[in-house]
């Protein structure tokens, strides 16, 4: 039985459609499973024509009934056409209300396919939050969209780069706001949440501790700690240990990521976006992916933006997307689905 991954097209005017077309030229369903791409067929025809590649789909559908029939026939790469993009107005690299609404609708449809058992997991390509906002939609990132679609508690993103697993206490917020979010209560909540999400022995080395980064640059000398370490991080770590969490820290960011790469930790917790992403991208830029834990289904995403400036120029390599599909299917095969 083929297990299917749902793959919405992301931001239409960005690099997502190109990455999908290129990735599906090379993926084998025996390795990556069946794939249902949700998007606009006229857009994909244009992108394929412009990058001089054939469309990589074995079947095209526009209803759930058609999809069920094609899946029963064993089709592997299925395109679900929602006909959302106004091609008379479409331009590469130009976001709009139309492209934003299409991103949102395709993602919602992909989630519905999982909820209705047409697919088992979700793989995402880049969106543009500004376009979704232009469409009047508040939930403009996958982190906010997906919990809404599945009426679920918050998911938590984890970067996977060369086997190094990195969670982040804060995500797409300005650095000043990230620092304001470093409070005892919030740090302890993140530690407990990460601990609860890293118990699966098929994904994590559960015998090893979690590790959390420091805010300020310092060595092991306690005199160099600043207020965030003394008043927030250390008390939160001690409180977590008191309830049974195996965690070390705070560890300075450079030492933390070096030790993580050596395999000393189950997973690490960075405190803000770039503390996590700079390390992950340095380890393996082309194969870093984002995995979202805590939702009713597995979500694996390409960890980069829509790259509007590269759209339509045949410049993108699909390595991150291929890696995301590979990890998603490997996890599904061993029963890891959320």
From TrEMBL:
<keyword id="KW-0560">Oxidoreductase</keyword>
<dbReference type="GO" id="GO:0016491">
    <property type="term" value="F:oxidoreductase activity"/>
</dbReference>
<protein>
    <submittedName>
        <fullName>4-hydroxythreonine-4-phosphate dehydrogenase</fullName>
    </submittedName>
</protein>
<keyword id="KW-0520">NAD</keyword>
<dbReference type="GO" id="GO:0051287">
    <property type="term" value="F:NAD binding"/>
</dbReference>
<dbReference type="Pfam" id="PF04166">
    <property type="entry name" value="PdxA"/>
</dbReference>
<dbReference type="GO" id="GO:0046872">
    <property type="term" value="F:metal ion binding"/>
</dbReference>
<dbReference type="InterPro" id="IPR005255">
    <property type="entry name" value="PdxA_fam"/>
</dbReference>
<keyword id="KW-0479">Metal-binding</keyword>
